[in-house]
Specification:
Elements: E1 3-4, E2 10-14, E3 28-31, E4 34-36, H1 44-56, H2 66-85
Antiparallel strand pairs: 1-2, 2-3, 3-4
Length: about 90
């Protein structure tokens, strides 16, 4: 899958092997064809713990917001539309 976004970057998640459980799978992510290494990546459970720790910091924490949720929903809608129409969908 390739997604165009407002920043003109090509994000390509490698979901091979994820099957129907892509929500608990740690895919490789490519940005403009190059593998993106994520520091401190420790899997789904560690990521959840880290997210809650950031939320507990209050305004100083770095955690998902409602704006992030809206962007994710738009991305998921674009993925569904891309699959249905068989074309790249620009966000």
């Amino acid at each position: 899958m390739i997604f165009n976004n407002p920043w003109n970057d090509l994000l390509t998640p490698d979901l091979q092997g994820a099957g129907v459980f892509f929500n608990v799978f740690d895919p490789k992510l490519y940005l403009n064809g190059e593998l993106v290494e994520i520091d401190g990546h420790g899997g789904v459970i560690e990521n959840l713990g880290r997210a809650w720790a950031e939320f507990a910091k209050g305004a100083d924490g770095k955690y998902a917001t409602i704006e992030d949720a809206v962007k994710n929903r738009q991305l998921l809608a674009a993925i569904a539309r891309s699959g249905k129409e068989g074309r790249v969908v620009d966000l």
